[in-house]
Amino acid sequence: MDAVRDLLTERAVLGVIATLAVLGLFVMLCRARRVSTSVEDAVMDMLHRMSKASADLREGLTEEAADKATPHLREMLRCVAVGITDHEGTLLSWDGGANDHYEFLRTYIERAIGEGHKEHVEHRKLDCELPGPCSLHSAVIVPLVVEGEVAGTLIVVSGVANKRQIRMAEETARFVSTQLELEVLQKSRQALAQAEVRALRAQISPHFVYNALNTISSLIRTDPAHARELLQEFAEFTRYSFRTDGFFTTLSDELTNIHRYLTIEQARYGPRLNVRLRIAPEVLQVVLPFLVLQPLVENAVRHGLAKKPGGGLLTIIAEDNGAEALISVEDDGVGMDPDRLFEDLKDAHQTGAHVGLGNINHRMRAVFGDDYALVVETAPDAGMKIILKIPKYSKGVRTNLPLVPPRLEDTTEQPAVRA
Known about the structure:
Pfam family, one: His_kinase
Keywords: Kinase, Membrane, Transferase, Transmembrane, Transmembrane helix
Strand order of the largest sheet: 11-12-10-9-7-13
GO molecular function: kinase activity
InterPro entries: Bact_2-comp_sensor_kinase, GAF, HATPase_C_sf, HATPase_dom, Sig_transdc_His_kin_internal
Structural class: alpha+beta
Protein name: Sensor histidine kinase
Number of helices: 11
Radius of gyration: 30 Å
Number of strands: 13
Strand content: 15-25%
């Protein structure tokens, strides 16, 4: 995830450079033409159209996206027409005149795609038999290169032929390619986010599912009512944990699912597992990455308290801290050497050790930035405390889940209700 974010940042920088290059050339073009409007107005119009085209191109190289983008690109270039093809040379969109000349350009389009370089076609090279002057004086066909592969071409048809127009066509194609690359990288980032959530689900399923079902089955004969209640909790827990809609949830929903998890674990461990909650009501609707808290609670139960003779206390605190919510998951279990934890987290993708912590740390940094990495305090025989900071507002972070308050009888410090 860090590599993808770094690459995305790099592409964004390249996008800015490509945008500035197009803008600079456009300013020179305006000055050369001595247009009646001011250069400042032309630049503002240019920026507006580039912004519109960027949003359209982030949808990918589709016919619909191309139809939205080509009018803005044609106005930017002040040319006769702009066309966009796919990687096979099929025309996706054409805005402007001289559209009947597309067939004359097919050979040059195929050559640009096959050889990966621009083609400059003058009117005299075409089989145009129109009487009188033709609006197509020249055409520049530039490959659109995305991730090292030709994804299509940009066709710029001009009524004049000069070096500035050719350079503008090249820089505009670079701008379009950068927007398409950002769209590809965004999809890759989403795919990685999905993979990380699947990894967390895989971590939950093997050990917890088996132990939960084993606990429930042991109660079927002795306490069937309790077994039915636990089975319902287990069903709700798995429904939430394996849902597929959205990458974010509310603290309220995450705490509700943690309540289900702890209800089942308390039935298994009995008096060895004690729980204390202190939740501030004003942070219940804070939005955070899906499945970011439950694995921390599970880690505390499995690695901290289950290994301690006689068990211990799990404390979950969520409090208001101005623009952020501060959340901590703490146990007074066996703890561990912090140096060893650091090494485990470095190699978690290979060894599987504490994969939940490593995964969550990567997700927090990817969503909110490096300032929101996990803070872990631990030592041998001194338990472990994990602290998260969640901003109350972060651009692009929202949930589409219904806001259901957690089943907590009181928000003051208290032991969790035993099943």
